[in-house]
Structure formats: C-alpha cells, structure tokens
Amino acid sequence: MNESITESEDLEWRLRISRPAFQDFQRLLPRYSVRSELNRQLPKLRWWNPDEPLVIDLQWKWLEQPNGLAELLVQLDDGFVGTVRVLFCEHSPNPSVPTLWILGGMRADEAFDSPQHTIYSGRRAILRERAD
Length: 132
Description:
There is one protein chain. This protein has three helices and six strands; from the N terminus they run E-H-H-E-E-E-E-E-H. The protein is an alpha+beta fold. It has one domain (14-131). It has a six-stranded mixed β-sheet. The longest helix is centred in the C-terminal third of the chain and has 18 residues, at 114-131. The N and C termini lie close together (11 Å). The model is unreliable at 1-8 (pLDDT under 50).
C-alpha cells in the first residue's frame, strides 16, 4: 500500500494491537491500574489524522516516513514510568477499512536508536506479511 487512506476528515480508524505490544506493555507497566490507564488512552488513535500534530489531546509524530513508524506519547500517572512512547503504523489489507496497528511501547526517556529501529521495523514487516 503506497498511499495513505485519509480522504475524509471524520475518518474513524480501526485499531489493532500486536501480541508483542501486549508483552511490551506488560513488562513496561507491571501494575494493572497503569496498564488500564494506557488502555483508556489508546482508543483515541481511532481519530488519528496524519496532517494534525495531535490525536484529540495526545501528541504524535512520524519516526519514519512515508508509511512507516509513528509514535504516540501518552502521559501516565505512575511514579516509575511517566510517559510511554507507543509505536504504531498504518497498514490496511482491506482499503475500505483503514487500520492502525500498535507495534509496541517503550519509555519516552529511552533512546530510539538503531536496535529499537530494527526491532520495530521488523515487527512492521512481519505484520504486513501476516495481515494480508
């Protein structure tokens, strides 16, 4: 898929979360209450617009463009992890159903360097192969 599916401003995206993302969040946020808070924030991505810098009240940005990795920054009320970087990508096997995939998460104060880039790019590649 080479082009973004953002013809309508009122577009509601389908949101999917990968198994490695569940595992990332389990490791990163061991307290159930904090994971629940994150789970309440993630559905805001359904109203994501690649032309806007905010998704409702959450900031996001491209890490790799075009049709690559993006990150959503979620502020949590946790003493250990203050802000979580949620990595996601756009991949819609069915063009009539625009879909965003959550690939994983990490602390916002961690560097997103070459090893992390390789991991999340690999997750995106696997997702694209299996989702079609």
